[in-house]
Amino acid sequence: MITIKSRKEFEKMAVAGQTVAVVLATVKEAAVPGVSLKELDAIAAEVIRSQGCTPSFLGYHGYPANICTSPNNVIVHGIPSDRRLVEGDVLSVDAGAIFEGFHGDAAITFPIGEVAPEVQLLIDTTERALKVGIAHVIAGARLGDIGHAVESEAHRQGFGVVREYVGHGIGRQMHEDPQVPNYGKPGTGTKLRKGMAICIEPMFNLGGHETTVEPDGWTVVTADGSLSAHFEHTIALTDRGPLVTTLLSATDDDLAVAPRSG
Ligand code: MF3
Ligand code: CO
C-alpha cells in the first residue's frame, strides 16, 4: 500500500533525514586508514541517539548493527566488522534513523585515499545517477521515468546495474510500497503524487550486474568480485515540490565568513 504523508509527517521525516545526513558526514570524516568498520558503527549510533532518533537498521529482520558498511566488492548490507580500512578501499555506508515514528534512509560511497580513475568514475557516475533520478521526482512522473534515467547513466559508462535490490517507498516503515527499480521504461509504472516519499538508491558495479549473498545471510557481493558503488536519498514529494530530506543542510560552519582584512 502506498501511504500519503501529511505536512506534519514530512516534518518528522525531515528531522530523521537530517540525522541520517549528519551520520553519513560524520562517518565519512572518521573513515581513515586504520579505523575499523565497527568503530564507524559506534560513531553512527552515537550521532543517531544524540539527535533524539533511533537507528532503524538495528534489529530490522534481525540485522545486528546500526549502519551498513560495504567495502569494495560488497554492494549493500555489509555488517560492520573488526576489519580496518586501508588506503585504496572504496566504502559504501548506508544509514537509517527514526524520529517520532518516521524514517530517513540514505547511503554514500567514497574512496579511502587515492583510487584508480575508473573507480572514481564508478563512484561519480552512481552519484550522478541518483541526482538524475531525483530530477524526475515530480507529481505526475512515473517510476519508469526514474528507473530509465538512472540506468542510462550506468549504460553510458558500461557499468553493471544491480537489479535484485531496489529503492522503495518510505514513511512510518523503512520499506513501503512502491518498489523503485534502478531500471525501467519511460512513461510506465506507478505515477508519483503529492504526499508520497521514496528512496532512490542506484547500485552500480565496475563489472557485471549479478549478485551473490554471503553465508551470513546479509552481505550482498558482486558475483564477479568487481567493485560496487551505492548512493541513496529519501525524497518527499511536498506541496512545494520534491524535498530531499537526507541532504545535509547548511550549518553555521558553512555560513561562517572569514573576517575581512584591511
Ligand atoms: N538502507 C537499506 C535500504 O535501503 C536497508 C538496510 S537493511 C538493514 O533498503 F537490514 F540493514 F537494515
Ligand atoms: Co533504502
What does this 3D model show about the protein?
By secondary structure, this protein is an alpha+beta fold. It has a single domain (7-244), classed as Creatine Amidinohydrolase, CATH 3.90.230. 29% of the residues lie in helices and 25% in strands. It contains 5 helices and 15 strands. The chain has helices at 7-30, 37-50, 117-134, 143-157, 252-255; strands at 54-55, 67-71, 74-76, 90-99, 102-111, 160-161, 167-169, 176-180, 197-200, 203-205, 211-213, 220-222, 228-230, 233-238, 241-244. Strands 8-7-9-14-15 form a 5-stranded antiparallel β-sheet. Strands 1, 2, 4 and 5 form a 4-stranded antiparallel β-sheet that branches. Strand 4 (90-99) and strand 5 (102-111) form a beta hairpin. Helix 1 (7-30) runs antiparallel to helix 2 and helix 3 (117-134) runs antiparallel to helix 4 (143-157). 47% of the residues are buried. It binds 2-amino-4-trifluoromethylsulfanyl-butyric acid and cobalt (II) ion. Cobalt (II) ion binds at residues 105, 168, 199, 201, 232. 2-amino-4-trifluoromethylsulfanyl-butyric acid binds at residues 57, 60-61, 63, 68, 77, 94, 96, 105, 199, 201, 232.
